[in-house]
Fold this sequence. Notes:
Elements: H1 3-24, H2 27-33, H3 38-63, H4 69-87, H5 93-121, H6 125-150, H7 157-173, H8 190-194, H9 205-234, H10 240-244, H11 246-287, H12 294-302, H13 304-322, H14 328-357, H15 367-388
Amino acid sequence: xxxxxxxxxxxxxxxxxFIWGAWYVVMGTYLFRIGxxxxxxxxxxxxxxxxxxxxxxFIGVIADxxxxxxxxxxxxxxxxxxxxxxxxxxxxxxxxxxVLLAYAVLYMPTLGLANAISFYQMDHPGRExxxxxxxxxxxxxxxxxxxxxxxxxxxxTPFRIAAGASLLLGIYAFFLPHTPPKDKGKAVSFxxxxxxxxxxxMKNRSFAIFILSSLLISIPLxxxxxxxxxxxxxxxxxxxxxxMTLGQASEIIFMLLMPFFFVRLGVKKMxxxxxxxxxxxxxxxxxxxxxxxxxxxxxxxxxxxxxYDFFFVTGQIxxxxxxxxxxxxxxxxxxxxxxxxxxxxxxxxxxxxxxxxYTLSDGSHLWTSxxxxxxxxxxxxxxxxxxxxxxxxxxxAPEGMI
Length: 402
């Protein structure tokens, strides 16, 4: 891959996650301000999970078979930018949900398209992709810093910033390197699209326990993305969006440290630590404050690197090793569907329901009670995992994946 192509792909990945990071983190704070209740907010966040469920169909049926990836990506981002702008002006929960759902169905496939465009250009994906993908995390961080600096977390401005960036990426995508449809002329099947071939792996008890644990741990995960920003703002933290980018910074650091931990701890301990980190984070949120115990809030944010890398990245490595080569892609698609799709969909609605139960008449919230729900859920899942999951033998990380 030439240096020019590397720069092109890096800019693409930066903008791809800048768009998501600009509106997603602060949406809960904005929706509370304009009068949405917990259930409305949970529904709004669930649109992304519906998008994750439906995106394999879009990519499998259209992008992989009929059109070049860069052109599909361009059209999706241009239309998506228009939808985000429309969303920024909607104040009614029902209309907000449906328009944001339409946007999410367009945006989520672009995550896979960005990866496909990158991999097609690479001579050595194992070494080259991590250097490109890290620009996505940096894009998310920059978006949070800008939103925090502008002090617009409780306004519709983040949606409009994301809309502008989406339009920019849409135009830019037309000039990305050509990536032809990889399965042109091939027959399409439902099982291929959603990774049902991976179900044969469920005969292995440990793999089945891992899939069940992944589904369940994604439920408390949704609490963090949906309600951390409004929680910290209600607790009096300033410049919250910018401070929450510490989580993405820690994600980069722990990603670099993963090879060190992986060879010493193994799969089971790594995944367990990731699960327990979710529980610890929520306990810190439940019992911290923005005064003498403010450090607990910051530690809860910084734990994001452990929560994400130790569970999700280690899980991807485990799946890659557990699946025969012929169904590795299906297996990865299946675990993505289970976590970001089904698991977080349940989590978004659950989080909204829990928040609504602990909302007081004046609009404030009993946050200790709210955070204890995902904390104990994550703790319970960790106990089940440690009892029933057996350490796999001979698991090695793919070159360059961590």
